[in-house]
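RECORD TYPE: inverse folding
INPUT: structure tokens
STRUCTURE:
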């Protein structure tokens, strides 16, 4: 099993050498490569990475981005430039422990497609990092149907095949297990160690939680409705139609029983607007269905995902 370790780096100069040393010790005896992606660092991280690459030519590859694109883009670049059958993501801030990687690889060998780290004893600020993270993890688990305690833990191991077929945007790297779960991947969650930050500063605060919540709408749509958008838009349209009929029925009852004119009530305008919005929503669903079919048929992409084929010689 060839393993690729992908570590996005942004202003982590003091952490790079200890991280490299820890990864080499943890992966000793395995077939591996270390891919460090410099995401536009300004503190001299790229010079430290180049020095390590020159010293460890057998294992280290450095990908330097032209500017700071964000953690998700850096992870995507690392994945694109990796060669391993298994890809392990790890932060460069030394809060993840490289010594946990062999244990995660053992879970992969047991047959799991995704092994997600769970920082049981998280060494971060309780009010600004831990509590918002727990709320976000609970919400993501409920919405996506993939229950994990720690979506925000970067330390995760993936079989390469579960990472194929979709691209990462925004802050979407934390939702990879949800994407993988959408195609039937077997997911395991294991407790991992978490250390206090020794060097440098944290790159994220409370604003990251808001981004996660917004990205969650996209993930839910892609996982649940990307193949049949009419269920989302059509269902919304039917709900609006029903609301329109209920309001109209209420107005008719008031007219018949209490002799109140329908045209004088603003509820009549609301009923008409709900009807129009419902009709537009269904039309949007039909357009989305056409776009989905055009996308899959023009690229000859299957709408299913095969885990494996057992037995039976295939003859062309």
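DESIGNED SEQUENCE:
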């Amino acid at each position: 099993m060839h393993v690729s370790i992908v570590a996005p780096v942004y202003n982590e100069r003091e952490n790079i050498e200890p991280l490299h040393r820890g990864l080499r010790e943890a992966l000793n005896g395995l077939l591996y490569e270390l891919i460090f992606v410099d995401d536009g660092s300004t503190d001299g991280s790229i010079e430290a990475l180049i020095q390590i690459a020159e010293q460890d030519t057998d294992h280290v590859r450095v990908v330097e981005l032209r500017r700071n694109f964000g953690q998700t883009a850096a992870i995507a670049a690392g994945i694109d430039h990796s060669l391993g059958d298994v890809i392990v993501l790890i932060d460069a801030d030394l809060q993840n422990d490289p010594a946990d990687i062999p244990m995660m690889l053992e879970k992969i060998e047991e047959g799991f497609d995704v092994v997600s780290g769970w920082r049981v004893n998280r060494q971060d600020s309780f009010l600004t990092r831990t509590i918002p993270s727990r709320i976000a993890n609970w919400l993501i688990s409920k919405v996506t149907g993939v229950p994990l305690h720690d979506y925000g833990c970067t330390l995760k191991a993936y079989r390469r095949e579960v990472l194929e077929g979709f691209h990462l945007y925004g802050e979407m790297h934390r939702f990879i297990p949800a994407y993988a779960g959408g195609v039937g991947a077997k997911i395991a969650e294991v407790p991992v160690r978490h250390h206090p930050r020794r060097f440098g500063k944290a790159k994220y605060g409370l604003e990251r939680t808001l981004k996660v919540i917004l990205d969650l709408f996209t993930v839910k749509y892609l996982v649940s409705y990307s193949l049949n958008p009419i269920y989302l838009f059509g269902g919304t349209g039917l709900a609006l139609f029903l609301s329109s009929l209920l309001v109209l029925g209420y107005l008719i009852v008031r007219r018949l029983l209490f002799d109140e004119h329908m045209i004088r009530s603003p509820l009549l305008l609301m009923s008409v607007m709900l009807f129009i919005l419902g009709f537009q929503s269904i039309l949007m669903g039909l357009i989305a269905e056409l776009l989905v079919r055009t996308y899959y048929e023009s690229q000859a992409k299957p709408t299913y995902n095969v885990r494996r084929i057992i037995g039976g010689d295939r003859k062309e």
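NOTES: Residues 172 and 214 are 10 Å apart (CA to CA).
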